[in-house]
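Tutorial, part two.
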Amino acid sequence: MTIRHFEFDHLEHWKSDLSRALGSIVPSEIADILREANPEFISDARDVLFDVADRDPITDEVISWVEKHTVFAFHGTRLNADEFHSVENEGLKILRPSERRARLERALSRHPRWDSVLGEISSAINRHGPGKRLGRREGQVHLTLSRAGLTNGFPHYLNGGSEFDQNVAMDLLGADGVKRCVCLFRKSSVFFLNPPESAFASAELSFFQEVQCFDCSSACFCVIPKSSGRTSKLSVQLLPNGTTLA
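Running the prediction step on this input gives:
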């Protein structure tokens, strides 16, 4: 069996092959249906598809097709040198809100109003962690299949770092707090190559489910590690800002 790369942004490399795989279970007029629906986001196109075709066989066939490929996925963030090396050696860790406090304090403590908001940091962390104020993030790592989406469609991950940290900082100190989070860390994009035998075995991927905290227009999914609480360190490559993939 030939193993190929699946890189979402290069539609020309995979569209025909996936269309053939889905040919017997997707209506032949699906292109016209989607064109008429004119969906704004990929998730809207998915909903249109599942309105006219059976979801389960499509999902099964897509998973089977993806398992024959090496999958490119991307995570945008801002890291200091220690965090950069940690990701390089151990992979990305799932979000545990209680463990973000020290990082947030380090970023925000030089703000002139820090003493007045220090007593509020625990409640702010709880609001955006267990409280899910702006969507669920706790216990997850979020990736996107589209690097173009990460850099152009929703660049706030690269420009501002962790969305959880941004939201807590905004709660405490407004836009000034977000700027403090940004200035201590350098822009980084984390690139994943998941070999087909582990792309689905090592994590639960919600390709066809809403991920509440995503407000982007490109294909996204969340990774929920089953045991270690980390993504596989063997799958991670770090791409400093400006690096391009061949």
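Residues 4-69 form one domain. In part three we will examine how such features are distributed along the chain.
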